Amino acid sequence: MIISKITCIGAGYVGGPTMSVVAQQNPDIQITIVDVNAARIAAWNGEDLDQLPIYEPGLKEVVAEARGRNLFFSTDVDKAIDEADMIFISVNTPTKTYGKGKGQAADLKFIELCARQIASVAKTDKIVVEKSTLPVRTAEALKSILDNTGNGVNFHILSNPEFLAEGTAIQDLQNPDRVLIGGENPEAIEALVKVYEAWIPRERIITTNLWSSELSKLVANAFLAQRVSSINSISELCEVTGADVNEVAHAIGMDSRIGSKFLKASVGFGGSCFQKDILNLVYIARSYNLHAVADYWEQVILMNDHQKQRFAEKIIQTLYNTVNGKQITFLGWAFKKDTNDTRESAAIYVADYLLNEEASIVVYDPKVSAEQVYKDLDSLGTRSPEDNRRLVTVVNNPYAACRETHAIAVLTEWDEFKGYDWQKIKEDMKRPSFVFDGRKILDRQSLEALGFKYYAIGE
Ligand code: UDX
Ligand code: ADP
C-alpha cells in the first residue's frame, strides 16, 4: 500500500501539530487537515503565523515550511475523505456530561459522526487511523459502523495514539520516545510505519494488536498522572514535617528505578488528557466489575482534587480566614507553561473555590484570552456569567494585575514570572504582601528579603 494522500479530521491540539510535522517530514505526501470549525481553519490558513489557533513553541516554523507545499487546511471534509488513502481521526473525545457514564466515560459521538461520514463518502479502500485517545475496543465499534454503512469498500483500522505533551509538542513529535501502532492488517500497519520511518528510527516504532495499543495510551497517562498525585500527596506531608518536597523528589528521582521526571509537586495536574483518561480507565474497570482496580486509579483523581482545594484553603486561611472582597492576583491560567490550552487547568478550580468565598480575582496569563477565562468559569455553572464578570478581571499586564492586590497566586509555571521586577510588585501591593507559589518557581530567599510572605507547595 502506497500512501500519497492523507487526511486528518480534527484541527485541534493533537491533529494540527501532529499532521504539520508528518507533512514537514514527508514532502511527497499531500496532507489535508479538515475541521467543521470554519474559524479554526481560517486561523490555520491565516497570513499571520503568530495568530495560529494553537500556541506551541516551534509550530509556526513547521507550518511556514509545509503549508501550501504539501500541507493544507480545509473545511471540505467530504472532498478530503474522498481523496485520501489514509484518514486520521483526531477529533475531541470529552468526558460525557449526560446519561450513562456521565462524568466518567468518554463521549464518542464525534468519533461516530466521523465514522459515518467516512463510510458514506468513501468510494475506495481506506486505512482509518485512530489518533484521538479512545476507550479500549473503540476500534471494534468503528469497524462495525464503517463495514455496515459503507459502500462496500475495505477499511483497515489502526490505533496510533499520540503521546505528545502540549508545550513541547513539536520536539516530542520530531523526536518521540516511541511511536505505537496497533492493528490487525500487516500491510496497513506497514503503510503507517513507512510514514513515520521518514524521520523516526524503525526500532522506536512499536507494533501491537489493536487493544494493546488503545489500552497503552490510557495506561501511559494514568501512570504519569499517578506520579504527580504521588508527589503531591507527599508535598502535604512535607509542609507539616519540615521536609522540602523538591529535596525529596531529587533524592528519590536519582534512583534509576524511579527516575527523575514527573516528580514536580504542583497545585494539581490539568490538561485534556490525564483526568479524562483515568476516569475512562476507572469506568472500563467498573464495567467489568473490577472494583478494586477502579478504586485504585480513582484515588489519583481524588488526590488531585484535594491538592487544588488545599491550595485554595491555604490562601483563605493565611489571609486571616476571609477573602471576602479581597483581591487575589492569579499569575497563569493555562494548565501548564508554553500553551494557551486551559482545559481542566487547576487555576479554574482554585478560582471557583475562592469566588465562592467572594474573593475578587485578577488574572494575568501571557497566552490566555479574557474570553477563554470567562468561558472556563461559566462552563462550571457555579454562578451566573454576570457574577463571573463582576468578580473576575483579566488584564494583559502583570504589574497592573498585581497593583493594590492582597495576594499573588502562581498557578502556571511560565518562565517569565521568575524574571519580574518583584521589588516593584512589592511596592505596589497591599501589606502584608502574600505570594502563594503553586508551582514552586520563585526564589524564597529573595522574595523574603524583599518583605514578601512566601508560601510554596511542599515546603
Ligand atoms: C499528557 C502526556 O504527557 C502526553 O504523553 C499525552 O499525549 C497527553 O497528556 P499534557 O497533558 O499535554 O500531556 O502535559 P503534561 O506535561 O503531561 O502535564 C500534565 C499536567 O501535569 C500539567 O498540568 C502539568 O503542569 C502537571 N505536571 C506534570 C505536574 O504537576 N508535575 C509534573 O512533574 C509533571
Ligand atoms: P484535541 O486536543 O484532541 O486535538 P481539540 O478540541 O483541540 O481536541 O480538537 C478537536 C477538533 O475536532 C475540534 O477543532 C473540532 O471542531 C473537530 N471536530 C470534531 N468533530 C468533527 C467532525 N465530525 N468533523 C470534523 N471536525 C471535527
TrEMBL record:
Pathway: Nucleotide-sugar biosynthesis; UDP-alpha-D-glucuronate biosynthesis; UDP-alpha-D-glucuronate from UDP-alpha-D-glucose: step 1/1. Pfam families: UDPG_MGDP_dh (PF00984), UDPG_MGDP_dh_C (PF03720), UDPG_MGDP_dh_N (PF03721). Its EC number is 1.1.1.22. It catalyses: UDP-alpha-D-glucose + 2 NAD(+) + H2O = UDP-alpha-D-glucuronate + 2 NADH + 3 H(+). It is an enzyme of class 1 (oxidoreductase). Keywords: NAD, Oxidoreductase. Gene3D superfamilies: Cytochrome c1, transmembrane anchor, C-terminal, NAD(P)-binding Rossmann-like Domain. Belongs to the UDP-glucose/GDP-mannose dehydrogenase family. Catalyzes the conversion of UDP-glucose into UDP-glucuronate, one of the precursors of teichuronic acid. This is UDP-glucose 6-dehydrogenase.
